[in-house]
Amino acid sequence: MIATLVCGLAPDYHSLFIARAFAGAFGGILGSLVQTIVADSIPFERRGKALGTVMSAFSISTVAGVPLSLFLANNIPSLGWRAPFIFIALISSLILYVGYRNIPKITGHLGQTHEGSRLSQIWNIFFAHQHLRAFVFMALIMLTGFSVIPYIALYLTANVGIDNSYISLIYLCGGIATLMSSRVIGHMADHYGKVKVFRVLAVISLIPLVITTNLMPVPLWVVLINSTAFFVLVSGRMIPAMAIVSQVVEAKVRGTFMSLVGSVQMLASGLASVLAGMVVTISADGKMEHYNLVGYGAALCGLLTFCLVGYIHTDKQSK
């Protein structure tokens, strides 16, 4: 909250950059803590629906974030670009109060002893055999999506011929659809089994993924159907995946483990963008080339997650 407020009060670019870095660093930890609290508070049998609710909240922020920020910046001329940062800081104060009153105090694990220093504990948690499988699993999931996602807008405008003004509509439709589907996917994961639902989504999501990276000039409605399916299915995989991964570790070290999972996700998503950027090129006529190769590589990573998920589930994850 403080770092975001400082963003809104930043006098120059360098101050804004540093404040935003702090906001991102602590925000990343918060994301891991949210998933940890859900895992500690909700029984595994109902955790898919709970995580689906959390994912739907992310969808709301995705759908509403950019349009609301632009609205505030354009309609509060005295603040301009500072308005969204100040608004987030204020609304976060309200969320902090609601969270303080309602989030359960999870302290049962605090009395348990840990051997060695904090650094050695993190080392042991990271390199535990079962945990490494989970980290590789999550890295492959991020590679599947984020090698393709950062370049979708450029490919649609340069190769498919979609006007740049429709890109926001494409993301809006995808965000709204994801918002509506997240809880449904979570419920299905609880009812039919997390592993089974993940495998189904992992396979089906490859269809719009491969289509996206091979798409030729088509009408806008075709693009909307495919892109919406892409966002629903690719993001939907994360719901059963996070439920599965959250159960791999003991409750006493789940906070550390989930923070490491978050770090692996961020590192893998950045690596995915860099690797994809090394493959794609821009031709003389401005079109993107070799994006289809990125799609095939992403599909391979998706198939690997299909295989690997069977090796990380525990006895509680019999389905």
Short précis:
The chain is mostly helical. The protein has 14 helices and two strands; from the N terminus they run αααααααααααααββα.
Question: What does the main sheet amount to?
Answer: 2 strands, antiparallel
The amount of helix comes to over 70%
Mean pLDDT reading = 87
Question: What's the number of helices?
Answer: 14
Total number of strands: 2
Radius of gyration: 21 Å
Structural class, from helix and strand content? mainly alpha
Distance between the termini: 40 Å
Strand order of the largest sheet: 1-2
Q: Assign an overall shape.
A: globular
Order of helices and strands, N to C? HHHHHHHHHHHHHEEH
Stretches where pLDDT is under 50 for at least 5 consecutive residues are: 315-319
Strand content: under 5%
